[in-house]
Recover the amino acids of this structure.
């Protein structure tokens, strides 16, 4: 299975990718995660990317495309992959098409996760990530205290939860604007290729997962 999950910040791309990874045993390739890892390591690429990420803008295409080219050359992607947060604009989508043609691995589906603007902002404001295992939780949708009580599989201690630096109100507003202007046009791009499947991504995570599975089985 070679797919793209397309959707605004907070639409659940990462959450649903994780579930697909478990179900289909194929890797999630998230440009956001790859960029955050480069920022954390302080690599030259990370230093360049950080400024754009903190401002809610897209990181330069050449940086992101270089990372994707390297990642898709790794052997674990031969059996398929889930692209999460990539491509983000038409130039990236065209470059991805060319790369996948070159390696003989064309996309099979692009699923658009549709979520109302107010719900996106709500989800993002409650998102927290464990600094040790990377698990993403939501303080607003989980039972009170549940996320804090859970123990981390890496340390055996309670999760050390932090809020992503780009999850503040001003940056989120910019990220949503960038999505509308630069990423939403991909809906028409992939519809024209016959690859697009849109699903309602509101409601419980398990319901969204079922809609996603059904969309992937549609021919
Ligand atoms: P990236 O990391 O890709 O962030 P994003 O696209 O803004 O998406 P998010 O991670 O915010 O949301 P998500 O859809 O994964 O939602 P999640 O599952 O976490 O990008 C960050 C930055 O990196 C960009 O701004 C840019 O600067 C740069 N970048 C990345 N890729 C790039 C590219 N290709 N080109 C250039 N620059 C790039 O869910 C959100 C919350 O909601 C969580 O708390 C979750 O628990 C909760 N939740 C999920 N599903 C549900 C549900 N059904 N009901 C209730 N809560 C739910």
């Amino acid at each position: 299975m070679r797919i793209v999950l397309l959707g605004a910040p907070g639409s659940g791309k990462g959450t649903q990718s994780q579930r697909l990874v478990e179900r289909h045993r194929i890797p999630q390739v998230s440009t956001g995660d790859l960029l955050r890892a480069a920022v954390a390591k302080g690599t030259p690429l990370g230093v360049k990317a950080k400024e754009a990420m903190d401002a809610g803008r897209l990181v330069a295409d050449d940086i992101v495309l270089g990372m994707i080219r390297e990642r898709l050359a790794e052997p674990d992607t031969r059996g398929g992959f889930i692209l999460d947060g990539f491509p983000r604009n038409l130039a990236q989508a065209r470059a991805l098409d060319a790369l996948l043609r070159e390696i003989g691995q064309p996309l099979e589906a692009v699923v658009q996760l549709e979520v109302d603007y107010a719900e996106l902002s709500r989800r993002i404001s409650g998102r927290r990530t464990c600094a040790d295992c990377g698990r993403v939780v939501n303080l607003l949708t989980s039972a009170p205290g549940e996320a804090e009580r859970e123990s981390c599989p890496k340390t055996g201690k309670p999760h050390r939860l932090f809020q992503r630096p780009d999850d503040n109100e001003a940056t989120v507003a910019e990220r949503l604007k960038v999505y509308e202007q630069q990423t939403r046009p991909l809906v028409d791009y992939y519809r024209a290729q016959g690859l697009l499947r849109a699903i309602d991504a509101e409601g419980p995570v398990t319901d969204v997962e079922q809609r996603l599975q059904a969309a992937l089985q549609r021919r």
Summary: The pocket of BIS(adenosine)-5'-pentaphosphate is lined by residues 7, 9-15, 31-32, 35, 52-53, 56-59, 64, 85-86, 88, 92, 123-124, 126-127, 136-138, 141, 166, 175, 205, 208 (CB under 6 Å).
